[in-house]
Design brief:
heterodimer; A: 217 residues; alpha/beta; Rossmann fold; 2 domains; 6-stranded parallel β-sheet; 5 helices; 28% helix; elongated; B: 472 residues; 3 domains; 4-stranded mixed β-sheet; 21 helices; binds iron/sulfur cluster
Chain lengths: 217, 472
């Protein structure tokens, strides 16, 4: 008995007969298509990527803040949490362990978020101006759960990492990442649902709020 | 899912006579269509994006065998296992085998239409494994005695908040909550422990990316992320036609899928999942499987119906369909509803099992105009009608009428005699009024509206008279 795999592929082949030469040519086309990906039509780039990103992120119901340098990140996070009357206890992705979180009077744990963590802090591989989207890559220093389990997610975005569109973000990933991440998550604002009477409710299963801190402006 | 499409006409009658359903359908009618239209401005050139999206999907289907092989190679190299199934039953068996191998007791599911095709929940339950639907809409349906979805994107669009209130209070044993936000919270609190305790996460797949051997999952709620991050085992269950070449193609399709579906520029979460958890990763599944289902798809490749395989399941066709908007999704009797269901159901389940569906359209082509991958849905419905005729599946009355028409249409004298008789009859029915309130021989035609009265003479008579006038 042939396997389902061979049977399905065999039937597809029968429906699209090719001789050996054609098969090789098509195989070559596929290799080329993947080696040199073609970009589709994209909206015109914004002149000011940071401004466009902030505008679109807000349109997706993220809140945003800016901060001149990395050293001030913990203090800005603490100030925002205080203003929002949110818990001053954060679980921080290991990639951001070097910042002085305790100096900002935050109770901090470095590592992956668990079920009881209220605020998760993550870096961001790239951010996309076109849609106000965060691109988060999973890895030992950047667990996926930190942007998922806590009710509040704070993302630290370096302004030079804001790119025009998803195509540019993929290009950066191909060029810079040595190991392809298990999960690449694109996050555009808090989790939401409109299943009941098409009424939008924030915080369906993921965070209720996403706060984006743009660093280096 | 068991097919009930053969009872379409009866089911439509029930739906039209159900005042609650009609109220619920009316509440949201047109909203998604308006949101879609408003969102297209965000693309400088919608037609160009649509053309590109169409070409991406069409190009893969032209060489689907080779693209699938490439996808399989990349996915396997990154630690996933790719399994294949002829049909839904085989897919269920494969998934139950995976569950047994990894000692799985409970499964959290994010939305997968292929799982509905396969009837996976019933199969899992029969094998002693507990499936939990986690998309809010699908969860509501599951606790309401496994009610089928009525829309591919908004599964409970046919329900009112009052119905959900009553259901939650009854099933959860809680105080009735009327506020939609409170209902959503209640579901969140119920489902959190399920996510944290489940051994397996089952997702569908919006796209399979050949470049990296990944599955792309698009959700707003975040349940897709939870299902694929927390459990030890992740199974992505989807159709063989879902492959796209590259990540750049994914970017193009993501410009058009959420806009067509809900009018969003992007969905809240798009996850690209590749293989298993890496050394040092704190989260992610240790085992990842793809189950790729044929289920009638391979036979469409190279046929007149191949364009249907381009479908990206956005739901725009049903959101714009006057028939769907009036009868709701359940009337269609299977997983897929609206225009895309009227094409897919007969193709996947047999033309004889869904005879009325290709007829359940006015061929107004609103669906064809909005489809983001340019599927000519009305043409495909017409082709299905032709197939029914070829196979002698139409009722004898219709066949007789068509034969009579063909006879008359080939004989001008007979045609004009019939037309003259018909005009005389209709004018008599109108009795001098501009419209006919009750159509004598076909009263059903005028049960909802009047029929306009014709001019006193046929076109041919008028034309002949005018020519005579000019000649003299
Ligand atoms: S047929 Fe076109 S419009 Fe309908 S669901 Fe599929 S892609 Fe969307």
């Amino acid at each position: 008995m042939t396997s389902a795999r061979d049977d399905i592929l065999g039937r597809l082949r029968q429906r699209r007969p090719r001789d050996d030469a054609m098969r090789d040519a098509t195989g070559e086309e596929i290799r080329r298509a993947i080696a040199h990906p073609e970009r589709g039509p994209r909206p015109a780039d914004a002149e000011d990527l940071v401004a466009r990103f902030v505008e679109r992120a807000r349109a997706m119901t993220s809140s945003t803040d800016v901060c001149p340098d990395t050293g001030q990140v913990p203090a800005r996070c603490a100030a925002w949490l205080r203003a929002m009357r949110l818990p001053l206890a954060v679980v921080v992705a290991p990639a951001l362990a070097d910042l002085d979180w305790r100096g900002a009077a935050l109770s901090v744990r470095i590592g992956a978020a668990g079920r009881d963590d209220a605020v998760g802090v993550t870096p961001c591989f790239r951010a996309i101006a076109e849609t106000g989207t965060l691109m988060l890559c999973s890895g030992p220093a950047t667990p996926a759960v930190n942007s998922l389990l806590p009710q509040t997610h704070i993302a630290i975005v370096r302004s030079e990492h804001i790119v025009a569109d998803m195509e540019a973000a993929w290009q950066a990933a191909r060029a810079e990442l040595t190991a392809w991440p298990r999960a690449v998550n694109f996050v555009s604002g808090p989790s939401r649902t409109a299943d009941i009477e098409q009424t939008i409710v924030l915080g369906a299963h993921g965070p209720y709020r996403v706060h984006v801190l743009v660093v280096g402006t | 899912m068991e097919i009930r499409s053969m009872h379409f006409v009866d089911r439509v009658r029930e739906r039209l006579d159900d005042p609650e359903l009609q109220r619920n359908l009316k509440r949201t009618r047109g909203r998604n269509a308006a949101a879609r239209a408003a969102s297209l401005g965000g693309l400088d050139d919608f037609d160009a994006v649509r053309a590109r999206a169409t070409e991406i999907r069409a190009s893969v289907l032209r060489d689907l065998d080779l693209w699938l092989e490439r996808f399989e190679r990349e996915a396997t190299a990154r630690g996933a296992t790719v399994l294949w199934a002829h049909d839904g039953d085989e897919a269920c068996r494969l998934i139950i085998d995976i569950a047994r191998r990894h000692d799985v007791r409970s499964v959290v599911k994010s939305k997968s239409m292929v799982s509905e095709e396969a009837g996976l929940n019933a199969a899992l339950e029969a094998a002693g494994i507990r499936p939990v639907e986690t998309d809010l809409g699908e969860y509501i349906l599951q606790i309401n005695d496994n009610e089928p979805p009525s829309h591919i994107i908004m599964p409970v669009i046919h329900k009112s908040r009052e119905q959900v209130t009553e259901l939650f209070a009854r099933v959860h044993g809680t105080e009735p909550k009327t506020d939609i936000e409170a209902l959503t919270r209640e579901a969140r609190e119920r489902l959190r422990p399920a996510f944290l305790g489940a051994d397996m996460g089952l997702s569908g797949g919006n796209f399979l990316v050949a470049e990296t051997g990944s599955v792309a999952i698009v959700t707003n709620e975040g349940n897709g992320r939870l299902c694929t991050t927390m459990p030890r085992v992740h199974v992505a269950l989807t159709g063989i036609e879902k492959v796209i070449p590259t990540l750049d193609d994914l970017a193009t399709l993501l410009r058009i899928l959420p806009r067509s579906a809900t009018g969003q520029a992007i969905s809240n979460y798009v996850s690209l999942l590749t293989g298993t958890k890496h050394d040092g990763d704190a989260d992610g599944p240790a085992h990842m499987y793809f189950v790729l289902v044929d289920g009638g798809r391979a036979d469409l490749v190279g046929s007149d119906f191949e364009p249907m395989l381009r479908c990206i399941r956005c739901g725009a066709c049903m959101n714009h369909c006057p028939v769907y908007q009036t009868v709701g999704g359940h009337a269609y009797g299977w997983v897929y509803t609206g225009p895309m269901g009227s094409v897919l159901t007969p193709l996947f389940q047999g033309i004889g099992n869904a005879r009325d569906l290709p007829q359940a359209a006015t061929l107004c082509n609103q669906c064809g105009v909005v489809c983001p991958v340019s599927i000519p849905l009305p043409d495909l419905m017409r082709k299905l009608r032709e197939k029914q005729v070829e196979r002698g599946m139409r009722p004898w009355t219709e066949r007789l009428a068509m034969r009579a028409w063909a006879w008359a249409a080939a004989r001008p004298w007979a045609y004009s005699a019939c037309a003259r008789a018909a005009v005389r009859y209709l004018c008599w029915l109108a009795g001098g009024r501009a419209s006919i309130p009750v159509m004598g021989l076909a009263p059903g035609w005028t049960s909802q509206r009047d029929f306009p009265a014709p001019a006193a003479r046929t076109f041919r008579d008028m034309y002949a008279r005018q020519r005579r006038g000019r000649a003299s």
